[in-house]
Design brief:
The chain is mainly beta and about 120 residues long. It is about 0% helix and about 55% strand. It has strands at about 1-5, 10, 20-25, 35-40, 45-50, 60, 70-75, 80-85, 95-100, 105-110, 115. Strands 2, 4, 5, 6, 9, 10 and 11 form a 7-stranded mixed β-sheet that branches. Strands 1-3-8-7 form a 4-stranded antiparallel β-sheet, with no helix packed on it. A hairpin with a 4-residue loop joins strand 9 and strand 10.
Length: about 120
């Protein structure tokens, strides 16, 4: 099992920035990739960004955020970060951390952290 704990959400003004953190614990060695998803009220959960935990550190971003978002990792601390800049009201959502294991096709979720972009 993998446990994920998100932090860093809150109220941000349009144009502002935030940095979300996701700390993983448990069966860390089983994780192949980690990512951030978000779910706005009345909408489906969608991928924001993901990163491979392997040496390559390959990243993937949603088109809606790729020019103003950076996902990064600190493998020594088992933590993944999401830096979002130039925030817009439409970025308002609950942001969930995700961990994925390719071999078993298993995934784990954090409880989510609310990000509200409003003036």
């Amino acid at each position: 099992q993998v446990q994920l704990v998100e932090s860093g959400g809150g109220l941000v003004k349009p144009g502002g920035s935030l940095r979300l953190s996701c700390a993983a614990s448990g069966a860390i060695s089983s994780i192949d990739a980690m990512g951030w998803y978000r779910q706005a009220p009345g909408k489906q959960r969608e991928l924001v960004a993901a990163i491979s935990i392997s040496r390559s550190g390959i990243t993937n971003y949603a088109d809606s955020v790729k020019d103003r978002t950076t996902i990064s990792r600190d493998n020594a601390k088992n933590t993944v970060f999401l830096q979002m800049d130039s925030l817009k009201p439409e970025d308002t959502a609950v942001y969930y951390c995700n961990a994925y294991n390719v071999l078993s096709d298993s995934e784990y979720w954090g409880n989510g952290t609310l990000v509200t972009v409003s003036s």
